[in-house]
Amino acid sequence: MRGVRVTINFITPEGDKKTIIANKGESIMDISHTHDDIELECACEGSLACSTCHVIVDPEYYKKLEEPTDEENDMLDLAFGLTETSRLGCQIVMEKDLDGITVTLPSATRNVQLKGSKLS
Amino acid sequence: MEENEPNAKIPYQRLPEWLKTKVPVGANYARIKSDLRGLNLHTVCEEARCPNIGDCWGGGEHKTATATIMLMGNECTRGCRFCSVKTNRTPKPLDSNEPENVAVAISKWGLDYVVLTSVDRDDIPDGGSEHFAKTIRLLKKKAPHILVECLTGDFRGDLDCVARVANSGLDVYAHNIETVESLTPYVRDHRATFRQSLKVLEHVKKIKPSLITKSSIMLGVGETDQEVMDAMKELRKIEVECVTLGQYMRPTKRHMKVYEYVTPEKFEYWKKVGDDLGFLYTASGPLVRSSYKAGEFFISSVLRKRQQELGVGSGISEIRE
C-alpha cells in the first residue's frame, strides 16, 4: 500500500536503533509485523485484550498522540515496565505529524530470562 | 546463552527434526473439513494451528478420525501469548443452532470419543456454560455410546458455571493450567490465574467425584524443572487424574518466542514423573496436546472398565431434555 511515507525509529531491547520507512495509516503493530527485524508481539491482534505490544514513546512525540481510550489504559496498566510515556503499539497509527518518532521496545517486559537460571 | 543478563536476546531456536510434521492430505481430512464448513462449525485444530491435524483427522493407525470441535465461534475474548485463535472483545453472538449441529455432526462421524472445547466468552454472563452444557446433553441423547471429553475455560472462576458443565453428562472434564505458576502472568491472558484454574478442577471433583479430570502443561516457555514438578504435584493434590505435557510451538510471529525445545527424552522423563506421582494417565511428548488421541484410547478403556464395574451406561441418567 503506497501512500504518504513517514519515518519511525525503533530502539530494540538490546539497545539497537532501527529506522523504518512506513506508510501513513499503519499502526506500530502493523509496521513491526512487516519487518522481520522488529520483534513486537501482539497476542490479541489489536483488540485491546492484552499488553504485549507495549512500547515506550519518546516524550516529544508522546505529547502529539491522541489520548488513550479507557480500554487502552486498562490494558496498559497491566504492562510490565510501564512508564509515563508508554502506549500500546496497536493503538499508535502513523500520521505525518509523527514523522521521525522513536519508540523503545521494553526490555523487562516479559523476558523470562530475568527469572533466574534454568535447571535441566 | 547468558543467564540473568537483562538485555540478552532469546536466541532464535531452530525447529528440531522431531517436531516436523507432514502436510495434511487425504479423503478423511477433506471430508471432515467439508462437514465442518457445511455446518458452520469450527475446530481448535484449525484455529490454533495444531501440528497434529493431518494425523488426527486422517484417522491414524486405529483408523478413527477425531477432531476437537470448538464451540461458541472462532473469536475469543482473551489474548493469551501462545494462542493464535482470533481475539475480539465482542465476538459474534452465539449460534443457537450450534448445540444441535454439533450433536448431528459428531453422531454422523461414527466416533467413539470426542473432545469439545470452546473459546472464552467473557462477554456472556454465564461464560457460555449453558450453551456448552446443552451441547453435551444433546450429544449424549443422540449418541449415548460416545465418550465425551470437554476442555473448558475458567469461566472467570464462576463455579456455578463450572458445575453447569460438569453436571451435563460428560465423561472427562479438562481445564488447562497451561504453564507453571510463576509464568502464568507472563504467558496467559491477565484474566486467568494458576490458582483460579486449580479451583475449577478442584470444584469439578468436589461436585462429581466420578468424573475424570484432566489438565495440560506446555513446556518450553522458560519454566524450571522444579516448577513443573510443583505444578504436577498441585494437580495431584486436587486429584486430577490425567495430565498431558507438550512442547509450546509458536503459532505465528505475533506470538511469544519458544524459549526452549525440550527433547523427547526429557518428555519421557516427565512421563515417568507423572506415573510416579500417581496420575491415572500421563501423556508426554513434544507433539502431545490436551486432546491428543493417544490419551483418548487409554481413557476410553478406563472409562469402559469403570462402567462395567458399576454396571451403568455412560451418562444416560444425566440427560434432562
TrEMBL record, chain A:
InterPro entries: 2Fe-2S_ferredoxin-like_sf, 2Fe-2S_ferredoxin-type, Adrenodoxin-like, Adrenodoxin_Fe-S_BS, Beta-grasp_dom_sf. Gene3D superfamilies: 3.10.20.30. Its cofactor is [2Fe-2S] cluster. GO terms for biological process: P450-containing electron transport chain. Keywords: 2Fe-2S, Iron, Iron-sulfur, Metal-binding. Residues 6-109 form the 2Fe-2S ferredoxin-type domain. SUPFAM superfamilies: 2Fe-2S ferredoxin-like. One of its GO terms (cellular component) is mitochondrion. CDD domains: fer2 (cd00207). GO terms for molecular function: 2 iron, 2 sulfur cluster binding; electron transfer activity; metal ion binding. Belongs to the adrenodoxin/putidaredoxin family. This is Mitochondrial matrix iron-sulfur protein. It comes from Gigaspora margarita.
UniProtKB/TrEMBL annotation, chain B:
This is Lipoyl synthase, mitochondrial. It is found in: Mitochondrion. [4Fe-4S] cluster 1 binds at residues 45, 50, 56, 291. Its cofactor is [4Fe-4S] cluster. Pathway: Protein modification; protein lipoylation via endogenous pathway; protein N(6)-(lipoyl)lysine from octanoyl-[acyl-carrier-protein]: step 2/2. It catalyses: [[Fe-S] cluster scaffold protein carrying a second [4Fe-4S](2+) cluster] + N(6)-octanoyl-L-lysyl-[protein] + 2 oxidized [2Fe-2S]-[ferredoxin] + 2 S-adenosyl-L-methionine + 4 H(+) = [[Fe-S] cluster scaffold protein] + N(6)-[(R)-dihydrolipoyl]-L-lysyl-[protein] + 4 Fe(3+) + 2 hydrogen sulfide + 2 5'-deoxyadenosine + 2 L-methionine + 2 reduced [2Fe-2S]-[ferredoxin]. [4Fe-4S] cluster 2 binds at residues 76, 80, 83. Residues 59-280 form the Radical SAM core domain. HAMAP family: Lipoyl_synth.
